[in-house]
Hints:
By secondary structure, this protein is an alpha/beta fold. It is 40% helix and 17% strand. The chain has an 8-stranded parallel sheet with strand order 11-18-17-16-15-14-13-12. A 4-stranded antiparallel sheet has the order 2-7-1-8, sandwiched between helices. Strands 3-6-5-4 form a 4-stranded mixed sheet. Helix 20 links the parallel strand 13 (398-403) and strand 14 (421-425). The longest helix has 17 residues, at 540-556.
Amino acid sequence: RLLVLAMKRESNGVTPAATRARHEAPMTSNQAFVFIKPQALTGPVIAVVKERLASAKITVVSEGEVSAEDIDSKKLVDTHYGAIAAKAMLLEPGALEVQEAAKGKFKDMFGKTWEEALTSGVLVNAAQALEKLKISDQVLGEKYGALKLGETMVKLGGGFYVGSIDNLLVVNGFYMRMRCKFTTPGTKIHYFVVRWEPQDLSWADFRGKLLGGTDPVKADEASLRHQLYKRWKEMGLEVEPSTSDNCLHASASPFEGMAEFNNWLGTPLEDDPFCATLTEAGVSADTVKWWTADPAVPFEGKKQSLFDLVEDMDAKECAEMLVKISDPQCAPHECAAKIGPSLLASDLSCLASESQRVLKAGADYLHLDVMDGHFVPNLTWGAPVVACLRKHVPDAVLDCHLMVSNPGQWVEDFQKAGADFFTFHVEAVKPEEVMPLVEKIRAAGMKPGIAIKPGTPASALHPYGPHVDLLLVMTVEPGFGGQSFMKHMMPKVSQLRAMFPGTQVQVDGGLGPATIDAAAKAGANSIVAGSACFKEGADTAAVIAGLRKAVDDARAA
């Protein structure tokens, strides 16, 4: 369903009049974010851009400026450049997914393995290099610019480079030169929020013929980029435009426009009419937010850039494509099916024999829900029960899911009790405490996992996915067994599976023969099933085999 909604709230980053105008636009209209880059910002350039937009029947809904100081402090350009900037500024090298072939190139270039470089501390991102070397963004950019590909720098993937600088191996140091062009004090961008009708100009022609290709020399002769290149002295530019300094930026799709309104102007996603169209068509708000970072999403059997999939599409076609993409799919992953009966649903008067029975029926692990009556409104068992159970199932994998307010205080107790997995809730700890707790669990010899409640977005797990063994998406409200499966949690599973193909993604709550297909198709491989395995008269072996088959079939599809 593609609906036009009347939005009531006003933007934080755009004038009320501009916000209302954008919200009142019919969603068959195209809306984009266009800006003049700092190095091209002159009065004549602004005039030429506005004249060209008007001649193409493009309405300028609003215009304004964003200062370098705001761009720097709010990291607007870092969000704008996405994965390239993230590798340079946000993600530590140890959190990056590096293919084996790329690791081979790294070793050939620098004479040490990726892991050795991490351990020794010489492998850093650009932000860490600035701190270690005590130099400015500009100096690091200049040093990186002097490197030679194949001699002192290696390409490990798209927008992913490592170069040798002053005894450090620096990831994406080139980005600092790009960043400086936007963050030099006293500079700014000049932006336009624009709208037009697809029948007057397709999005492909908006970018290809009106804006022009990336290289202004080769761009369409009538395009803005080419005209500014030909007239650069007349326009008052100090440097001849080039591929790296091509004067202008414009959104590549209606979705990218929405993401750029959110980033550059602070417009809440929920206030954007294109976002409203998507959510009314069934795409979750959490998924829309995730998509704004241009993740690789599973579509038609392979993982592809979200932005690339909708590039140059007009509004209606773009929305329809995004609805298709949002359909939960099983992204390619490396995790075998694991089925774990939840002992909370068993006959607790004979916990040991119930455990032995389901293990004999084919269970891969035993799932133990630990509740403290505070984090969740129920009380179950603690480490002493786990220790007693371990005596009766010495070889079983004990998967302990702690729904408790202070999980860190129980690490030692559960390690001594014989727990194999120790999964805690991200909602139960402060953000700065998550990684120390993960490291504490691993140091104790257990495998760390992190869980989220139904009301918590999957994005809460994004920073920790590379560091844990298991990511748990609750498909019921934690605290009690026997609840109904929440199918609308599956986009979270798809999101996590696409991001972390080598990590176990677990679902817990309401899983059984009638609900397994949705979870398996979304990419879950670790299935917690309670009532389905323990209810009276259940053929437990058949249930476990059926759950396993569903996961294996989805993975193979």
